[in-house]
Write a structure and sequence with these properties.
about 250 residues; alpha/beta; eight-stranded mixed β-sheet; two-stranded antiparallel ribbon; globular
Length: about 250
């Protein structure tokens, strides 16, 4: 392998941005995401649903930096079209970099900009997005998304539940009843599940992976923590789940 090929393979992420100087001049060599396990739990669950329904054309609404699209493009070669929509130009610039050269992927800043030749799609995903939309606009947004789905297409929604405190950047959190109030009669609830059991076990695992004193990086230790998370935290119920994932079907 040529040296330049090795360099190219290392650009999975812009790794030069990982080290940084703190506000007091201290140097940090890593950045962390405290809710990383939580995010991976959502991501893996949504990916499994997409695979189970054998989706070939998908629109990711509120795609952000394109992580879900990147994962699907990389792992599911049967997918023909992946559309990402996000209002943030900055987020889409990251997505474009991550998806560079992939002709299956198409990114837009609004639903109105989507090329009609790419529609309809078999599935729409909204992963931790609906809570960012003002409630008075949410129903119209969902109706617009429905128009992009083919007959029998599915709408995969992940939202934070009322079991967790509302984040300052969120308008609301949901339970199944409050979410369904925004869905019209053209949608039928096919399945629902709750993930990320909030409580002491999760807090223990989090502290064993990241805290103010260290960030775990030993593969065997992380394998153990991942196993504990999947066994005791990943699956939840309506009373303790931090996130709800539902699949709606268009009539």
């Amino acid at each position: 392998m040529r040296p330049e090929d090795i360099q190219e393979q290392q650009y999975v992420i812009p790794y030069h941005y990982l080290p940084y100087q703190g506000i007091d001049g201290e140097w940090h060599i890593a950045r962390t995401l405290g809710w990383g396990y939580e995010y991976l739990a959502i991501l893996e669950t949504v990916k499994q649903i997409v695979q189970r329904y054998q989706i070939r054309r998908l629109l990711d609404f509120g795609c952000g930096d394109g992580r879900l699209i990147w994962e699907l493009a990389r792992e599911h070669i049967d997918i023909d079209v992946l559309i990402g929509v996000d209002i943030s130009d900055r987020a889409l610039s990251f997505a474009k970099a991550m998806l560079y050269g992939n002709t299956k992927c198409h990114l837009f800043t609004s639903l109105e900009d989507i090329n009609p030749s790419l529609l309809p799609v078999e599935a729409i995903t909204a992963v931790e997005v609906l809570e960012h939309i003002p409630p008075e606009l949410l129903m119209d947004t969902i109706r617009k998304l429905r128009s992009f789905l083919c007959h029998g297409g599915i709408f995969i929604i992940s939202v934070p539940t009322t079991n967790v405190r509302i984040n300052p950047k969120h308008y609301q959190h949901f339970n199944v009843e409050s979410l369904l109030r925004y869905m019209d009669k053209e949608f039928v609830l096919k399945e629902q599940q709750y993930i990320h059991h909030v409580g002491i076990v999760w807090e223990f695992i989090r502290r064993m992976v990241i805290n103010r004193y260290f960030i775990a990086n030993n593969r065997l230790w992380l394998k153990l923590m991942t196993s504990l998370y999947k066994r005791f935290v990943l699956q939840a119920d309506p009373t303790n789940g931090a996130h709800m994932i539902v699949v709606m079907s268009k009539k």
